[in-house]
What does this fold into?
Amino acid sequence: MRVLALDTATEACSVALLTDRGLLGQSIEAGRRHAEVLLGMVDAVLAEAQVSLTMLDGIAASVGPGAFTGVRMSVAVAQGLALGANLPVVPVSTLEALALSVVEEGAERVLACLDARMGEVYWGCFSKDPARGVAISGSPSVGPATQVELPGTGFYRGIGRGFAAYPELARLPGLILDARHSRALPDAREMARLGALRLSAGERVDAADLEPQYLRNKVALTTAERELSDRTLTKERRN
It folds into this structure.
């Protein structure tokens, strides 16, 4: 199975290629330079593996949630590459990729959380799933950190930069958080692994049907809303 994966939904820009010989990947925090570096990273991993696009079995595309522009870029580039090479695509979420990295370390249940800006976080609860890598409990959500909750009983491992942005999340009952996981960002390496599992199971969509997962329609606050949000967050953290 040869699967290319790419992600530009967060501060990180990452590309990975899974083949029968192993997994290659590149990841950098590119700021606003994702568009400048992404295709060069794709070319680099393909060249290193001596694989062309037409030799792939499919593309694992990051569909978010994440930054509005970054999510659109991931989806658009994946569509362009897949259409040009007549390849199927598999949508993979940033939260799933985070969860898989902890599952591969032995965790059974995971809370993945990313900073959504505007005083909110993207989050989802996941469990280990041998067939699909990870399975989500409920639906991915966006909202204030105070609304994040763990379903059921038992312990969850936390991962994602949302924990660095909102340290109060570490106090959730039943949460175990390793400091190194609190600044983690999604990586295309996990997306490639998830994509391979799902392609093998027959999951795929036509490139033209690939859709982003924004979770939130509104992507900016007015000045008044930002001031209110800042005052509210300051008050909550003091309490």
Observations:
- The helical segments are 34-49, 68-85, 94-103, 162-165, 188-200, 223-238.
- The longest strand covers residues 133-143.
- The radius of gyration is 18 Å.
